[in-house]
Design goal:
Elements: E1 13-18, E2 21-26, H1 31-37, E3 44-45, E4 52-53, E5 66-69, E6 72-76, E7 87-92
The structure holds FE2/S2 (inorganic) cluster.
FE2/S2 (inorganic) cluster binds next to loops.
């Protein structure tokens, strides 16, 4: 659905794991940008109805990009830059405490 404007642009790559699957993201990607580049169709589901949500505003306003990063839930994917070996998980429903 999404494609990079400059697919061959220079820049380093880092490997992130999205729901356990490796993906080569750019060092300049936010987690949300990496999710979109990886063709993830959603990054969370709502706590009440389970409706899928995906990054929308890309600037920290809508909170539709919440994911679990390295085991910590409710992280705004659009405000966090990827790093090598980062584990990103689709957040299903509400965040659990102490997990
Ligand atoms: S995409 Fe809207 S807060 Fe992250």
């Amino acid at each position: 659905m999404f494609k990079r404007l400059q697919p061959d642009a220079a820049g380093g790559a880092v490997t992130v794991f999205i729901d356990g699957k490796p993906f080569a993201a750019r060092t300049t990607d936010s987690v949300a940008a990496a999710l979109l580049a990886a063709d993830a169709d959603h990054c969370r589901t709502t706590p009440v109805s389970g409706a899928p949500r995906a990054p929308y505003c890309m600037m920290g306003v809508c909170f539709d990009c919440l994911v679990a990063i390295d085991g910590v839930g409710n992280r705004q994917a659009c405000l966090i830059r990827v790093s090598e070996g980062m584990r990103v998980e689709i957040q299903r429903g509400k965040r659990t405490l102490g997990a």
